[in-house]
Amino acid sequence: MSTSSLGATDQLGTPPAGPAPLVAEIGGGRWGDVWRAISRNKKALAGVLLLLVFVVLAIFPGQIAPDDPAAQVYTPALGPSWHHLLGTTGRGEDVFSQLVWGTRMSLVIALAVGALATALSVLIGVSAAYLGGIADGILSLITDVILVLPIFPLIIVIAAYRKNSGLFTLIVVLGALGWSYGARQLRVQALSLRSRDFLESARVRGERKAYVILFEILPTMTSLIVATFLGSALYAVLTAAGLQFIGLGDPNSQSWGTMLYWAQNGEALFAGMPLWAIAPGVCIALLGASFALLNYAFDEISSPALRVRKLDRARIPKRLPPPAEAPQAGAGPVLKVEGLSVAYATDAGPVVAVDDVDLELARGEFLAIVGESGCGKSTLLYAIARLLGSPLPGEIVGGRVLFQSKDLVLLEERELRRVRWRDLSVVMQSAMNALNPVLTVAEQMRDACRAHSNMSRAEIAERSREVLRLVSIDPVHLHSYPHQLSGGMRQRAMIAMALLFTPDLVIMDEPTSALDVVAQRSLMVQIKELQERLGFAVIFVTHDMSLVSHFSDRLLVMYAGQVAEMAQTRELFDRPRHPYSQGLLEAFPSIRGPKVRLLGIPGAPPDLARPPAGCRFAPRCAHVQPRCTAAEVPLTSVNGSVVRCVLAENAP
Amino acid sequence: MRPRGERALSEALLRTEGLTRHFHVGKLLSRQTLHAVDDVDLTIGRGEIVALVGESGSGKSTIARLLALVYRPTRGEIWFEGRPLSRLRGRKSRLAYSAAVPMVFQDPYSSINPAYRVSHGIVRGMKLHRGDLSRSERGAELNRVLDSVGLVPAGETRRRFPYELSGGQRQRVGFAQALALRPKLIVADEPVSMLDVSIRVGVLNLMGELREQEGVSFLYITHDVASARYLADRILVMYAGHLVEEGPTEDVLQRPKHPYTQLLVSAVPDPRAELGLADARDVGEPPKVVDPKPGCRFRQRCALAVAECETVTPQLRELGDGRRVACHVAG
What is this model's ipTM? Predict the structure, then answer.
């Protein structure tokens, strides 16, 4: 954060909610899905086809190769011809036949070493992670020692000691020395799984350790295990060829490495027979490439974040652009959002997460935006602050954000930097993620001041103390690191940083939801007091309506990317007009008053990739009518509120 | 929901005595002891729903894990159906206890193995704990528990993968897993805190229904006092590893005795009431309980604190009507 202009807004804790979790795409155990994923991925497809060619060669060499590869019956050193596609060797064998027969050994080595090394990686890596403690220490030490051993020279020594000892020794030696890299990776992933509740759930159920490792941990690591296998296979092909090339294999065996060995002995290049070396070399490269391609492809398939998707704007339903009007300076709203729409690119096409939102914010007003997860409230916030990108992807596909007589949507990054933090600042949900852990509070404030102003050192120090006092933190904490502050203090330090330049608008994304109720109330009271004292406007996003009931002036209820209802806070609590607002209000129990049985709202919010026709709440609504699903329901104004419901159209 | 507190107290299903769990923190030379749970006596009756509330770090989840045999107590004893758990010997008796006291976890997105279908955890539980069931009986039982937690049609849900389910549905799978073991007490650790507001009540109602239909007791661990009021017969309030107050839910929440309970109740946001600003100056920072000295752990935040609070740890005192409070002053 030290060098960034966005400072407090750079990193945040909540990743966007994706549809399927990482492991599910492959670990789902559905072979149909796996095949579909492979056939959609060009790299995977190329890798599979290439590997398939080699597998066919390895299984049916007798049918494909015209000659016995070991028969030294032809004129030595012939060039390519119809009889000898790749010519003959210095000893009078057919090069093409040798190549075909050599496939078998390379493939067997690749698969056998791959399997052996992977089995060892899994056994050692996962056991180390799961058992922990001393077992982890010893196993990790062994892994690290093997990892730093110079493998190739070691293998040469071993192979030379047991010269011409054949395929089996080669596989065992390569396998036994090649597992360490995979083991480390698997250990790390298993460690990250160790804190997952499903493992604790299995332990609480009474499962034995071996069962937990084999049947609970391993299936969720399928993609990494596959990657380990492919990586070791690749390593085996290359290392085996290298060993055979320097003559440490059996020189009478049929393999690509042996072909290289004989090519070297026969001085292929001086003899004018480059094909002796090129042919096996290309084969080694291609087999290696097929494993590498598959490895890449598996990475891409199993972590969708690596895939680059492009937003297909043509597939987004068109909205009429809001009529242009000259932005006014001076009095009037501090922020005006008109027809703002945001879309995400997904594999299934664009998803409109914020759909045509209008809102206005007066100077010093407190607007709360409430809704369930996935309703688009955070996306809306990020779009207003022009912070979409990473970690919350998405693009503004329509509308305007008028702030200080400028349309933020059209501003260049350089101009945005002048506005952000000075006039519009952002407070994120998780202060621990938004603050830089290796800088003190004072250093972070200094960086922010330097990036956004030309205050002197003394002015910065003075201002930093001032804003900390504003949020009732003792200025001695200026020299504390974030981890030395409690959760509530960190969150207040974030607010202090947002107030460094006395902005006109502070945007807050669930700043209190990580806190306990007592700390939460204290922070809310503080925010409200500061707001009244300094006169900034607030947009406050939360999932908890009751939290803001005493603090916000107006309330915007979002549902499935749209404004469902916007009204004065008191009015909305007393007379909710949208059935969804009514449902939300009746969904949480109260601490006072009569105890009544609550019902919540049946069903779940819709998938925004396929929003229901007409009113998006209709499938969960108790008052649904035919016209609700017939056409989209527009926003209706009722007594200064706006409601997206057909019931409100008839209301007085 | 009918309060059942009176009847339940007479026949305890589970009882703890001086339950204590400490953790070692810090490096070898600067080793300190974190007192996660200190001297907790609690009782859960048959068919009773008991709420355990407190701030994060107050020791609620540690108690859940002590009851689920994830941790061993540092001191103290857990009695289940009159038998002490420290005398559980052998895998068989531990398994029998695990089946009687299963646990439901907080995060529905991490508590089900994503690599398996929904049926996996439920069937595994039956294989481990109800070995007498035949394959077809297990299938029937699978459908029954999915039905009882409202995942209908069961025949279809059992084939789903977790990522095809919403958070609320996943949490129901958690309860189905517990239910398949024919439990007597389900330890539910913040089962609704990660769910969306509109579906939370559904899961709370489910717990109420399971109690009515299957006679299961619940230890409902939560930081949400309002949901505890909605669901529980009795409430236990924890602060910094100590149990500070307990009693029938309605009684405790309407007339809290311990100053911490009063603070907690006043801070619950309630749109239907005036904003309680009396204690709004309290910034809500519970102490870290590392190598504590005797004395009340709430005293620094307490308006009522007297000299005695500095030196003597208050013990739970009977106030009558099933209420107890650990405070030198209140009562």
Answer: 0.87
